[in-house]
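Inverse folding, one chain.
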């Protein structure tokens, strides 16, 4: 991992560099997903702002799910056991995030009432970081997945 930072810190560094929530979380796990930086960024690019600023599922959460899919996901469409195990993992990750934040929905987390936002991203100014919890949410999503990975590695 870049500069030997932990996943939480790395995700937050990427977010501060201007990458969206999903990109920041997914890219932080490149050493585990096998994706290169550019591919990570492109795959996750549509998921920022609650999926293209639609303010639906939080980008930090979808980034966490994408990384989890690459690390733990299934590829056999008829293996119901593997699907069930994976969906259980995703629901557990979501529950941890929701328990800490009250929701996994972008607009709820940001206290927005409008369902769809302008497609134009906000400028990343000091005021932006003061009024938005996104930096912390990115760090939290990365930390939740990192703890799961560490737990699994400790079991081995």
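Residues assigned per position:
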């Amino acid at each position: 991992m870049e500069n030997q930072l932990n996943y939480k810190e790395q995700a937050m560094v990427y977010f501060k560099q201007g990458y969206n929530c999903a990109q920041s979380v997914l890219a932080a796990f490149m050493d585990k997903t096998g994706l290169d930086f550019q591919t990570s960024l492109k795959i996750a690019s549509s998921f920022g702002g609650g999926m293209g600023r639609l303010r639906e599922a939080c980008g930090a959460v979808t980034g966490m799910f994408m990384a989890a899919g690459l690390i733990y996901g299934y590829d056999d469409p008829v293996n119901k056991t593997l699907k069930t195990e994976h969906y259980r993992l995703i629901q557990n990750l979501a529950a941890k995030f929701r328990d800490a934040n009250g929701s996994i929905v972008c607009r709820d987390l940001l206290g927005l009432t409008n369902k769809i936002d302008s497609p134009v991203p906000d400028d990343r100014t000091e005021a932006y970081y003061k009024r938005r919890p996104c930096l912390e949410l990115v760090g939290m999503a990365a930390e939740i997945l990192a703890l799961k990975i560490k737990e699994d590695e400790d079991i081995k």
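The chain has ten helices and no strands. Residues 2-155 form one domain.
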